[in-house]
From TrEMBL:
InterPro entries per UniProt: AAA+_ATPase, ABC_transporter-like_ATP-bd, P-loop_NTPase, Siderophore_ABC-ATPase
Pfam families: ABC_tran
Record organism: Xylanibacter muris
UniProt entry tagged with the keyword Ubl conjugation: no
Protein name: ABC transporter ATP-binding protein
Length: 333
């Protein structure tokens, strides 16, 4: 199911004042896609997810689900449409993992409803998909942050809704688990046509896994840029995303890197495009040293890159050959 946001304004209404976090958001979260929402701390990602989940009233505009305004669905209907995984620790922690996942079946069984065999199977399948079968009898209160996060994802899967919203689902996870979780959510969206929308600070992972990326900038008004990661790279949106914050997007490598003013440029020759050449360039950037393969007299130093060596050539000095990047950079920096 597509979710369309039309002139959506989000924020907080207090008794005497209103804090607008973002205005005029116009975008569509598409079914069958993994959409990742990126933005600096405090830009309003959680506020948007809470608004989409109907936990927080919107300030203005509309949220249209499958062609119908979100308000036109009853609470019961919404529970069968949308599942939400938030970052807060669940309050009911005396439960076992299985009982927590079973809560995902509540829209079908009711709070005190008995689980049918079919529900039990769905719960087992959800636990298996997330890889937590081994901890299913443990108390949720005894779990690590990462384990608990996986349980909450399993609960959302057990809810079997066409739309899943997740607020920073990869936050507490180790790197392989982050990748696994993203792969799982991508698979869920692609294989079952679900609409999966999540916020994350794992930008590089999102750029590799997401079908569509939403970049939420800090200025509040018309501050959402959306598109495929590659389109956002091409139109300069990714580059300007961190502008002025010491990080820049390298469109050649497709990764973000720390942006420091270059202190020195070194001439490189030989196997400059080999993996060794790329790794050497990466290491030198750590010391704000850039490289060029054009012969430039101002460079002074040349490094000749071989298959397993690096030869440093300085004017009026003896050539020196090193056999590791660490030795080479130590000799240069
Ligand atoms: N209950 C509230 N009342 C007023 N302002 C709030 C409330 N909750 C959050 N805010 C403010 O709304 C803005 C957006 O907050 P939000 O938590 O949505 O950002 P975020 O992008 O999710 O940040 P982070 O990456 O740090 O999780 C922030 O300025 C925050 O201080």
């Amino acid at each position: 199911m597509n979710v369309e946001l039309t002139n959506l304004s989000i924020g907080y209404r207090h008794r005497h004042s209103t804090k607008t976090v973002s205005e005029n958001i116009c975008a569509t979260i598409r079914k069958g896609e993994l959409t990742c929402l990126l933005g600096q701390n405090g830009t309003g990602k959680s506020t948007l997810l809470r608004t989409l989940s109907y936990f927080l009233p919107r300030l203005d505009g509309d949220i249209i689900i499958n062609g119908h305004a979100i308000d036109s669905y009853s609470e019961h209907e919404r529970a069968r449409l949308i599942s939400v995984v938030l970052t807060e620790k669940p309050e009911v922690t005396n439960m076992t993992v299985r009982e927590m996942i079973a809560m995902g079946r509540m829209p079908y069984t009711g709070f005190w409803g008995r689980l049918k065999n079919e529900d039990e199977e769905i719960i087992d399948k959800a636990a298996e998909m997330v890889g937590i079968t081994g901890i299913i009898t443990r108390k949720v209160s005894s779990l690590s942050d990462g384990e608990r996060q996986k349980v909450m994802i399993a609960k959302a899967l057990a809810q079997q809704t066409p739309i899943i919203y997740l607020d920073e689902p990869t936050a507490f996870l180790d790197y392989p688990s982050k990748v696994e979780t993203m792969e799982l959510l991508q698979r869920v969206s692609h294989d079952t046509e679900k609409t999966v929308f999540l916020s994350t600070h794992d930008i590089e992972l999102a750029l590799q896994m997401a079908d569509t990326v939403w970049l939420m900038n800090a200025n509040g008004k018309n501050n959402m840029h959306t598109g495929s990661p590659e389109d956002l790279a091409l139109d300069g949106s990714l580059e300007s995303f961190f502008a002025g914050r010491g990080v820049c997007f390298d469109s050649d490598t497709g990764i973000f890197r720390i942006n420091r003013p270059t202190t020195q440029t070194i001439h490189i020759t030989g196997m400059t495009d080999s993996t060794a050449g790329k790794m050497l360039r990466k290491a030198l950037r750590r010391y704000a040293i850039e490289t060029t393969d054009r012969d430039n007299e101002q460079c002074g130093i040349t490094i000749d890159i071989g298959s397993n060596y690096f030869t440093v050539i300085r004017p009026n000095a003896e050539k020196k050959t090193y056999f590791s990047i660490a030795e080479t950079t130590r000799a240069i920096k």
